[in-house]
Amino acid sequence: MALKLYGYWRSTASYRVRIALNLKQLDYEYIPVHLVDEGGQQHQLPYRTLNPARLVPTLVDDDEDLILHQSLSIIEFLDEKYSRGVALLPRHCLERARVRALAQDLACDVQPLGNLRVLQALKTDFAATPAQQHAWAAHWIERGFSALEQRLSTQSGKYCFDFDVTMADVCLVPQAYNARRFGIDMSRFPLISKIVDNCEQLPAFAQACPESQLDAPAC
Amino acid sequence: MALKLYGYWRSTASYRVRIALNLKQLDYEYIPVHLVDEGGQQHQLPYRTLNPARLVPTLVDDDEDLILHQSLSIIEFLDEKYSRGVALLPRHCLERARVRALAQDLACDVQPLGNLRVLQALKTDFAATPAQQHAWAAHWIERGFSALEQRLSTQSGKYCFDFDVTMADVCLVPQAYNARRFGIDMSRFPLISKIVDNCEQLPAFAQACPESQLDAPAC
């Protein structure tokens, strides 16, 4: 298969790219990189040669001789290269800007602050307890979701951007999954919750969920 | 003036947008939002109505009735709307993807971890001392720059992407400014240092530097 996705079942950024690949109706080989076992396979060869930042995901496209990192960059690349499936960015530059900004609200201002390496650093540097790590991650999700809920009140429809599924939804659903994991009370965010529900009814989102991946632990 | 940029002199993300506006040869009105004075003007009305995330920058384009946040989204919008000046993204989708990924390495994985609100939270939640705040910010910059230095060894030229100034350089120069502020030994990153030097010789970069802004403190 030409497309190979290196990812981890519970990684929010990997989850985004799985959704995008499904929405674009693209077949791909999924290659798990376990972020915890063996001290983290992302720190080992051969993965760190593919991605020196030692983060997931990485997309390899053998057709293009391409090794690409950063989930948002991967998603826009897939959208620009493949016209099939759902268009993940609107056609008008002003609308594209709004969708990118919503996606970046999550990918720049929420997800990086609560991911595994940051929680590990809080433990190492500040002896953070599991409860303190949990509260830290929850704080940034709640702060990000509060702002996003306000933004969505002026521009959302069935999905983040009107009635079209876009890259903003592709980022929102994994962040909501992560929020539930950290025990966030989602009833405080009714618009986000409604949009997430609408997305999760689509097979492209449902099939990308962490528990359905081959590297998810058995129940 | 149709374009208004709300920003802060030392904010890395505001600095990116100032560079982009200069490279696109666009006039704009700069409206300072002081992130420290009065408990942070970003938390107050009227700014928080413009940007509920209470972060800078925000671009207002009166021609389009547009209020846009997130620096990378703003930069791509300016590049797509205005053909004048420097093209900040390459034409080929594969090359665009590489430039976006480099920009996101900084905008997603470095800058958000060491910005003011995170350093303030470390103090509040973990009683971090100024030295610990400093070490935290420096750690993420060094980690991000180490990965970036490796990536640039296979794809850079005079600038991050070959011999063209792109959005990747627009993100790199402010991050290097921030790194120097945190005392990072830049001799460890010779490719990054060379590219930053090349960029800083261009008036569009030089004129955007924090110390030249109207809200910078007097020397």
UniProtKB/TrEMBL annotation, chains A, B:
GO terms for cellular component: cytoplasm. The keyword Isomerase applies. Residues 1-86 form the GST N-terminal domain. Residues 92-218 form the GST C-terminal domain. Pfam families: GST_N_3. InterPro entries: Glutathione-S-Trfase_C-like, Glutathione-S-Trfase_C_sf, Glutathione_S-Trfase, Glutathione_S-Trfase_N, GST_Zeta, GST_Zeta_C, GST_Zeta_N, Thioredoxin-like_sf. Coiled coil: none annotated. GO terms for molecular function: glutathione transferase activity; maleylacetoacetate isomerase activity. Belongs to the GST superfamily. Zeta family. This is Maleylacetoacetate isomerase. The gene is maiA.
